Amino acid sequence: MSILDVVGPVMIGPSSSHTLGAIRIGRFVNRLLGEKPDSVVFYLCGSFSKTYKGHGTDRALLGGVLGMADDDENIKKSIEIASSTGLAFRFSAFENEEVHPNTVRIECQKNGILHDVWGASIGGGAINIFRVNGVECSLNGKAPVIFVVNRDVPGALSKILNKLEINVANLYLKRLNRLKLTAAAIIELDDAPSKKTLEELKKLDVVLELYYIPKIF
User: Fold this and answer.
1) Tens of pLDDT along the chain (217 residues)?
2) How far apart are alpha carbons 197 and 194 in whole angstroms?
3) Are strands 207-213 and 145-151 parallel, antiparallel or unpaired?
4) 18, 57 in Cβ contact below 8 A?
5) Using CA of residue 201, residue 203, residue 208, residue 213, what is the dihedral sign?
6) Residue 55's CB: how many other CB atoms inside 10 A?
7) Which residues contact 73 (CB under 8 A, 6 or more apart)?
8) List of residues 6+ apart from 212 with CB closer than 8 A
9) Most buried pick, 46, 104, 133, 200, via CB within 10 A?
10) For the residues of 134-185, what is the DSSP string, one character each?
11) Domains of the chain (ranges plus CATH)?
12) Sign of the CA dihedral 67, 73, 74, 80?
């Protein structure tokens, strides 16, 4: 048993499900982009959509996409901070009985590229990122992740994996466009890749886009 099991996580309250989990989902998006987005829309599901203002979920999500830590006091002022930085944001509600009630879909843009991340806050600060740019997955934020868009040609995935030289914990794949011969892979790793490895991956002729997401917590 860890100290977190006894006293709970260090966080800005009031709720680990509605604030801490939300911060971490938002921070996943920040790590995916490498910085804050240019614009973002938060689509809130279930209890998230009903209590997001009272429980501070809106501030938590914004704090996360701005890159704030779990215990950052500025989370309380994240709406004002986001506005001052020129970040365009809005919140909207949606219903989907097939997903966890504390689910948020985050659509954001950076440099004209649209990203779409679905995540759920499943209790005690734990999260499940279950869709990234159309690829189904199950990520808890505790391991480094590479998201790669590659040419959908024979041997492409082998070239990517051979460059890693790190044990792969989980692998999620999807063909994005058969006509344009593009596919995507989410690669969850046991250890963080070196900067050199990431640079070598980007130079591969089969790699079209590559994003590295360090562990969130």
Assistant:
1) 343 333 345 445 445 567 999 999 999 999 999 999 999 999 999 888 887 777 789 999 999 999 999 999 999 999 999 999 999 999 999 888 889 989 999 999 999 999 999 999 999 999 999 999 999 999 999 999 999 999 999 999 999 999 998 999 999 999 999 888 999 999 999 999 999 999 999 999 999 999 999 999 9
2) 5
3) antiparallel
4) yes
5) positive
6) 19
7) 12
8) 144, 145, 146, 147, 193, 198
9) 104
10) TEEEEE-SSS-EEEEEEE-STTHHHHHHHHH-S-EEEEEEEEEETTTTEEEE
11) 3-132 (3.30.1330.90), 145-213 (3.30.70.260)
12) positive
- Tokens for 35, please give them: 């910085």
Question: What tokens were used for 120?
Answer: 């759920």
Count CA atoms within 13 Å of residue 95 on its CB side: 2
